[in-house]
Amino acid sequence: MISRPMTRRLCKNICVMTLGFTMVLLSACKKPAEPQAAPVAPAAGKPPVTAAKAEKPALPPLFRDIERRTFQFFWDTSNELNGLTPDRYPSRPFASIASVGFALTAYPIGIENGWVSRTQAVERTLLTLQFFRDLPQGPQREGNAGYKGFYYHFLDMQTGLRYGTWVELSSVDTSLLMMGVLFAQSYYDRDDPREKEIREIAEQLYRRVDWNWMAKRKPLVSMGWHPEQGFIEADWKGYNEAMFLYVLGLGSPTHPLSDDAWTVWTRTYDESWGVYEGQEYLATGPAFWNQYSAAWIDFRGIQDEYMRNRGIDYFENNRRAAYAQRAYAIENPMKWKDYGENVWGLTASDGPQNTTQEYRGEQRKFRGYSERGAGLHSNFDDGTIAPTAAIASLPFAPEIVIPATEEMHERYGEYLYSSYGFLDAFNRSFEYDIPLKRGRIVPGEGWVSTDYIGIDQGPILAMIANYRNGFVWNVMKKNAHIRKGLLRAGFTGGWLAAKEPEARPTPDEAADPKEAEARAIGTAESRANSATVPEAVDPAPDTKPE
């Protein structure tokens, strides 16, 4: 367990010393200033506004431990024979292509910190890319891993094939995979033959993704496709986590989305823009909507047309979202246990169970894996806190994230913090004696997840690296495809206005219970599968329709 910062304890002791030191000690012993709320938006059309410059808070040693443990999640749990990363661990039901994208990003972070050698990471990365390149693709229901360059959301950990007929060909999860693929392409820049092959295969994988095919209702991109039913009726429309999907689609050299794709994507932003908990921003609920794209793309100082008109950038938007989540926890309108200034964070995460129970004299609905959030939209809250929601907001608002991370570790670390860092989520209010599909009840403490989830681990690691020195952002700035996608989306200013960094030329393209449980997990975790379900319903025994 990490103790409270020593300075506060010393402060209390020193303040009882002689009056000769009073003036000095009073300044040292004052209560730390309350973090200032993010500023409201200026008039439209002005340069982006950001929070007032302040000295960058130093990270306490706890964060180095979190980094190392979270990195080890990806290094230890990925299949050494094919590079596939489990969706979750230790239950490990299947591989998630999105988790692979975060794993490919994690390996260079491990190199930079000395946790693995460059040789080790090159071997793992090359193995992974070769495996994905060689996996069969086709329209058939079985025997394939993907189609038209896209991959199925969940793959068998050993064979790499579609895990089941319920698994969709996922546009957003393929995009998370491709962000990791392009990150690897830009990081491994040496003349070593293996690094050259990494760059070449990364280019091949990216070039064969047919974004136009997935844009069934052009220019918007469908959430996915099933060989059994065809395209999912729901499209990706803003504002949510899919910004990076459109950046990738616009940057494609082979199957690019049309010029109006970004304009149409942002056309629905006004439905989310408003004032929530004292902040004016794109006030959608789940934290990961603000974190996924920002894990790879540095939005500081760059703006698209929508943000130019609003007078801020996406980085500032995300900062306000973090402050709003914290303010919501302090207000705690539903009176959940322990919510407060340093216990906050709602996002997509594990939860205790799909059930309705009495809480404080009224019926409350709880969920298993589900989106949770605080905002004008997608604001379900059942008392479940996910540490990744706060920690992955570190670059946006370190002054509130650092104390939150320390407090959650200190108060709950005995059962929430383990081999690979923070377990996925906890709920201090859920103490009901009912059967659970996942997680456990800690007597007197409530429910806690027993799994780590790859897509929640990944943002933690990337965002701590970005806070330290902008590592992931700076690597991704070198990628010509990402830069092109941002420019086609209408982003200007900031680092995009600087001379394009030199980059290597991109080459030319050369039904048992276990199955039922796995299906339940995967269905719950797939936004595409739930795209037409407006809210949770009481589940059947083997499904979780959040």
From TrEMBL:
Keyword Signal belongs to the record: yes
Regions of compositional bias (Basic and acidic residues) in chain numbering: 499-518
Positions of the UniProt region annotated as Disordered: 498-546
Keyword Signal: yes
Leader peptide range in chain numbering: 1-27
Keywords: Signal
Domain of life: Bacteria
Domain Glycoamylase-like: 235-479
Name used for this protein in its record: Glycoamylase-like domain-containing protein
Species for this entry: Pseudoxanthomonas helianthi
